[in-house]
Design goal:
The structure holds two protein chains of two kinds. Chain A is α/β, with parallel strands linked by helices. In chain A, helix 4 crosses helix 5 and helix 5 runs parallel beside helix 6. Chain A is built from ten helices and 13 strands. In chain A, strand 1 and strand 2 form a beta hairpin. Chain B is mainly alpha-helical. Chain B has one domain. Chain B is about 75% helix and about 0% strand. In chain B, helix 4 crosses helix 7, helix 9 packs across helix 10 and helix 9 runs parallel beside helix 13. The chains are: A alpha/beta, B mainly alpha.
């Protein structure tokens, strides 16, 4: 797999405010990539710069390992912030404009409109659409050129549960077609549900990059107990990969070094002659991890 | 280039304001030749010697003169086309479609060029429409002349085309600067009003002819000199001076360059 997007010290200043600070990113092709961060963390500004609408203050970026001009953008489908079309024009009239800009014919139009379930409403004016339909039309427009990559910025913002479910299903379907997707969101749940790896931004800085399912850089915690608590405490304190021991309701809460888990701890303690009566890995939700990462840095 | 004109056409065609302003503009143009009939009759009755009086003649439609008469009068309606261009361009910023266009793969300079080409396209259509109007009304009401004389002053059509392009480019520039259609239209109209005062002061009170000529709005109407003085037997300039042409073409270049500069500098 090649590189989808690479940024090199990408920076945007608004007067004294640094919206994006020296961002170094490397996103591989062929995955659903999440961009997570609270509102105002620089997600849209970053995407605006790599999509040519926000002038960068310094730094650099390349798509597909080398290009960054308008010709590249023609092979990408992107929606920033909210769906944008002429409100008085129909879906078909608006999509014709997109096709003309991308220099493609409109043979794909029926297909993409059916994909987002708007074919029956294709001649209605965009302004009369519900928010969910507007989002879906934006996805149809992004898919019109059969893009190499899709960039979605807060695609479910403001939608009702049904609308959110529809959009997620469409995203998962598109990902199933093998397209690269960059999904920016402030909703952890959303990223957790559809992304394989992600970055976390905070005040324009990269604070985490890695796989969504992994530990996201935080230590793992295990709860243990044994009939002889004093001996157990001693044994834990002497275990080389234990970082911290706290007393908890059901025994001791143990923080382990990265790479260690309940199995290695149990094995080590058994070798020391310690038999456990309780062993449980405490899974932190992505939410907790996210807050931890954001608050720590 | 064809792609960019087609793109603008797709943007303009479904818009109601586009057709309303264009049809209003054309209706006004047709109404002028009809309404000056009375004026012509009055001049013929009171000023022309008895032996020159002909039936069914309208003075303003004499071939040779008709090109300058029509294009001179029609210049005063260009404000409709300017308003049309302002709404057409400024709404792209207020609706943010300009932003989406760039995201979709249009370059910023292509965005400006597509507007410039569209302006050229409209100017061409309107110029052709004026040519047809002149031929029809001249054919109906002019005393018969040979075909050589008929087209003698046809260069005023070219001057009119340049006037249209310059005025609409000024409107495009205002739209790119202000970005809100309503405010941009007000700025455009208010500027025209303000400049007409400034023109009077500079030209007549201060006597700075060249400075007055260099004002953007004055210069767009500077190519075609007032032909009406001939009806009170005053001399009339029936050619287009190099000086006026250079000023107009200069402004065309300046407005395109400034629009390009604004577009490249600003975030969308």
């Amino acid at each position: 797999m090649g590189i989808l997007l690479e940024t090199n010290k990408l920076t945007k200043l608004y007067g004294k405010l640094t919206a994006v600070n020296q961002l170094d990113l490397k996103i591989e092709e062929g995955q659903v990539f999440g961009m997570l961060g609270p509102n105002g963390s620089g997600k849209t500004t970053t995407l605006g710069m790599v999509l040519g609408v926000t002038e960068r203050s310094s730094g650099d970026f390349t798509w597909f390992g080398g290009e960054n001009g308008p010709e590249t953008r023609k092979t990408i489908g992107a929606i920033l912030e909210r769906p944008i079309f002429f409100p008085g024009y129909s879906a078909v009239e608006n999509l014709k404009i997109v096709a003309k800009i991308k220099g493609i014919n409109t043979t794909n139009m029926e297909h993409v409109l059916r994909m987002v379930q708007l074919y029956e409403r294709r001649n209605d004016r965009f302004g009369a659409y519900s928010l969910g339909m507007k989002q879906r039309l934006a996805i149809a427009a992004a898919m019109l050129c059969d893009p190499k990559a899709l960039i979605l910025d807060e695609p479910t913002n403001g939608l009702d549960p049904e609308g959110i479910a529809q959009i997620r299903e469409i995203i998962v379907n598109i990902a199933g077609m093998g397209k690269s997707i960059i999904l920016a969101s402030h909703l952890l749940d959303e990223v957790q549900k559809v992304c394989s790896s992600c970055i976390i931004l905070r005040k324009g800085e990269l604070v985490f990059q890695g796989a969504v399912s992994a530990d996201m850089g935080t230590s793992k915690r295990v709860e243990v107990d044994a009939p002889e608590q004093d001996l157990l405490r001693e044994a834990l304190k002497n275990t080389p990969f234990v970082l911290d021991v706290e007393v908890s309701k059901q025994g001791f809460l143990v923080s382990l070094e990265a790479g260690q888990d309940a199995f290695t701890l149990n094995k080590y303690l058994q070798d020391q002659g310690m038999v456990l009566s309780h062993l449980q890995t405490l899974k932190k939700s992505l939410e907790e991890q996210f807050l931890e990462i954001v608050n720590k840095s | 280039m064809i792609r960019l004109i087609q793109l603008e056409w797709l943007k303009a065609k479904p818009a109601r304001f586009f057709w309303v302003l264009l049809l209003l503009f054309m209706a006004l143009m047709i109404s002028v030749p009809i309404s000056v009939q009375g004026l012509s009759d009055w001049i013929i009755k009171n000023f022309l010697p008895e032996n020159l009086k002909l039936d069914n003649v309208n003075l303003f439609y004499d071939f040779q003169d008709i090109w300058q008469n029509f294009t001179f009068v029609f210049q005063y309606f260009t404000v409709f086309l300017g308003t049309l261009i302002i709404i057409h361009v400024a709404r792209e910023f207020s609706l943010k479609t300009a932003r989406q266009n760039i995201i979709d793969g249009l370059s910023k300079s292509e965005f400006v060029w597509s507007k410039v080409l569209f302006i050229g396209f409209i100017a061409l259509l309107v110029t052709l429409f004026v040519a047809v109007l002149a031929l029809v009304f001249g054919g109906l009401f002019s005393p018969p002349v040979g075909s050589a004389l008929m087209f003698e002053n046809v260069h005023f059509l070219g001057a009119y085309f340049i006037h249209l392009v310059q005025d609409m480019l000024f409107a495009m520039f205002v739209a790119m600067l202000v970005r809100k259609p309503g405010i941009a239209v007000v700025v455009y109209l208010f500027y025209a009003w303000l400049e007409s005062f400034a023109y009077l002061v500079i030209k007549h009170a201060l006597g700075w002819d060249l400075v007055a000529k260099l004002l953007p709005n004055a210069s767009t109407k500077g190519l075609i000199h007032t032909p009406m003085y001939k009806y009170v037997l005053q001399p009339v300039q029936t050619f287009i001076s190099w000086e006026d042409l250079v000023i107009s073409l200069g402004y065309i270049g300046v407005f395109i360059a400034l629009s390009m500069w604004i577009m490249k500098k600003r975030d969308l």
